[in-house]
Amino acid sequence: xxxxxxxxxxxxxxxxxxxxxxxxxxxxxxxxxxxxxxxxxxxxxxxxxxxxxxxxxxxxxxxxxxxxxxxxxxxxxxxxxxxxxxxxxxxxxxxxxxxxxxxxxxxxxxxxxxxxxxxxxxxxxxxxxxxxxxxxxxxxxxxxxxxxxxxxxxxxxxxxxxxxxxxxxxxxxxxxxxxxxxxxxxxxxxxxxxxxxxxxxxxxxxxxxxxxxxxxxxxxxxxxxxxxxxxxxxxxxxxxxxxxxxxxxxxxxxxxxxxxxxxxxxxxxxxxxxxxxxxxxxxxxxxxxxxxxxxxxxxxxxxxxxxxxxxxxxxxxxxxxxxxxxxxxxxxxxxxxxxxxxxxxxxxxxxxxxxxxxxxxxxxxxxxxxxxxxxxxxxxxxxxxxxxxxxxxxxxx
Length: 397
Fold this sequence. Notes:
- It contains 14 helices and twelve strands.
- By secondary structure, it is α/β, with parallel strands linked by helices.
- The strands form two sheets. The chain has a ten-stranded parallel beta sheet with strand order 2-3-6-7-8-9-10-11-1-12. It has a two-stranded antiparallel sheet with strand order 4-5.
- Helix 1 (2-14) packs antiparallel against helix 10, helix 2 packs parallel to helix 4 (55-67) and helix 3 (42-51) runs antiparallel to helix 10.
- The two termini are 28 Å apart.
């Protein structure tokens, strides 16, 4: 399992920027190698990320990514999140859920939310929930090391969503839910889950422990890391991963995410179908635990450029970022991305007002005006897509 491999990789990531920086003459062949889908060695990926500390290399990478066309480079896939619970037994200090009275949608409320998204034209929807102890009940065999859950409560939402999607002509379900054991993920796969998503927060083990204290399910980083193998082993077609930029040094995180993707490819023949791009926002950015790791716009754009070059999976641009930032990224690097134009990060919010506090603030915009603006610039915005569409956006030889 990757959790057992990670400790061997951490010294490599820690060494980023400590060796002499590569010159642009040495960086360019690494970028060209990556877009040929020839895997960079452990040493090469660490040297490439270290090289981004030099201004001349930053410009080279940005220009290279801007000139490199990803699959479906004029198309934008839309993917909205649908939160069905914000009741959480985890206590992550960078999330608003532990500090608020959470809520859980009833089945009727969930159906109203789902139908509101279908009425807008969406056919690919992300189902999101917190670590709600009623939806993910600890099994009698549960331990903090070996986490097993009874997921009948959560599974009901997926079954409702799958039925309504089928009635609407088909589509795709992505999940952003707590990590689960292999048996539970197999049940979700049969219940309609097409893409299992888990944000890894930080891959650095010491920082992860510092941010996730106490007896909570999320405190077990190894279980979170290994959940992708549980999902792929359970037959779920796609997985999506990311680190939260701003919890640790983004360059070191990028090295580890790249090596994690390579590990999954070696074991399963495929890695992350979606690479997320979330960046920490809000008051917690001033915490002494993370203040030194905040990612300015210039570095955020550089990280997106590297993602486009290094990963085969499609990038997902976030509503945490301003519409102006996302338009700039697409205008500079091209599309071939997933985008969320407007969203609610609390249960409710599409068919009526949200039932509780949002997980994090997002930028709101008038969706059809935003779509028209992209179309006027020559992009095709796609509401209705499925698992096969996602596969076609993967970079292949």
